[in-house]
Amino acid sequence: MSERVVLAYSGGLDTSVAIPYLAEQTGGDVIAVAVDVGQGGEDLESIRKRALACGAAESVVVDAREEFAADFCVPAMQANALYMDRYPLLSALSRPLIVKHLVAAAEQFGGTTVSHGCTGKGNDQVRFEAGLSALNPDLKVVAPARDFAWTRDKAIAFAEEKGLPIDVSAKSPYSIDQNLWGRAVETGFLEDIWNGPIEDVYDYTADPAEPREADEVVITFASGVPVALDGRPLTPYQIIAELNRRAGAQGVGRIDMVEDRLVGIKSREVYEAPAAIVLITAHMELENVTVERDLARFKRSVDQRWGELVYDGLWFSPLKDSLDAFIADAQRHVSGDVRMTLHGGRAVVTGRRSDASLYRYDLATYDTGDTFDQSLAKGFVELWGLPSKIAAKRDREA
């Protein structure tokens, strides 16, 4: 049997050209694998047929939207995952899911090599290849843009030479990656970090400065999983899709930041993540109500490390597996409702309720009905400050 190359296929110019190019370079068959993670655009059947028309020996398309929402977006929300306290990991979350289906296709069709379209400057090459190494270390990897200095100009010329059935005329001024969890935009005039984004950059969100009526939403969680909007039971995918529409219409979720890439450079990125920002904000507030203080404090450090691992491409790693177990256990009591107002680019919590709430009105109130025994506070404060008091006396005497 000749060598078989499994290609992560998007249906665009670069990966369409990669099909005949890889066949020439390897002398083998190319298996095109397209995974729908909610990126929108063309339907899966059109993408499948295009891959075959470009010379693929097999073309596999996978509708992974529900899987992506439940198994990747929800865990990120439970970890309150915001890389550098701002970026909700939208691209980083989709890569391990795509890797999982690439490995499955390699096993199904006898693939020996996996190919992706990443360059040597970005994070995604690490996410793809670290994931592949963890799931099937015997697979070889080839990345035309990185390994063969494959440029867009070369891709267009090659497509015209081979008469491939793809449009090579359209060229966006930006590099865009999008999925159910959000949208990432870079390059073009954005590479000058003094230039402000223009409205043309955005697609998932409306201009937050436009006048409009506010939108109020109630999100219901069960053990850290979003299960309903405004009392309507929905799947995580349905909830994320609806919040993208509703919060996006209010301009919620715009992020403009310079971030630290894994490869050691700083990069200017513009993100849109309406549903992600709303759900993480709501989930954090419900944790504030239901998670005990010391557990909550420790979980914040776990959340940060979890986000760094996923950003760095280590979804399939022993440490992340262990952190997943901790986070899942910490979600046992994170059930209840959070009410939010979406307006003017902001998602503001206005109410919270839970049968597992640790908030006690009779302890918190300053009015009649207060059951907090203030007589205990004096001794507590003296003992709490005693180590510092002793140290201060020693230092003065010295």
Write the layout of secondary structure elements.
Layout: E1 4-8, H1 13-26, E2 29-36, H2 44-53, E3 58-63, H3 65-78, H4 90-109, E4 113-115, H5 124-135, E5 140-142, H6 144-147, H7 152-162, E6 175-179, E7 182-186, E8 215-222, E9 225-229, E10 232-233, H8 236-249, E11 254-260, E12 266-272, H9 274-290, H10 293-311, H11 318-330, E13 336-343, E14 346-353, H12 361-364, H13 377-397
Helix pairs in contact: 1-7, 3-4, 3-8, 4-5, 8-9, 10-11
In short:
This protein has 398 residues and is α/β, with parallel strands linked by helices.
Strand content: 15-25%
CATH topology assignment of the largest domain: Rossmann fold
Number of strands: 14
Order of helices and strands: EHEHEHHEHEHHEEEEEHEEHHHEEHH
How many helices in DSSP terms? 13
Total of domains: 3
Order of the strands making up the biggest sheet: 3-2-1-4-5
- Name of the CATH first level of the largest domain: Alpha Beta
**What's the mean pLDDT score?**
94
Largest sheet: 5 strands, parallel
The structural class is: alpha/beta
CA distance, first residue to last residue: 82 Å
Using only C-alpha atoms, the radius of gyration works out to 25 Å
At CATH's second level, what is the architecture of the largest domain? 3-Layer(aba) Sandwich
Low-pLDDT runs: none
CATH homologous superfamily (4th level) name of the largest domain: HUPs
Determine the fraction of residues in helical runs and give it as a percent range.
40-55%
> What is the approximate shape?
elongated
Account of the protein in words:
The chain is of the alpha/beta class. It has 13 helices and 14 strands. A 5-stranded parallel beta sheet has the order 3-2-1-4-5, sandwiched between helices. A 5-stranded antiparallel beta sheet has the order 10-9-8-13-14, with helices on one face. It has a 4-stranded antiparallel beta sheet with strand order 6-7-12-11. A hairpin with a 2-residue loop joins strand 9 (225-229) and strand 10 (232-233). Helix 8 packs across helix 9.
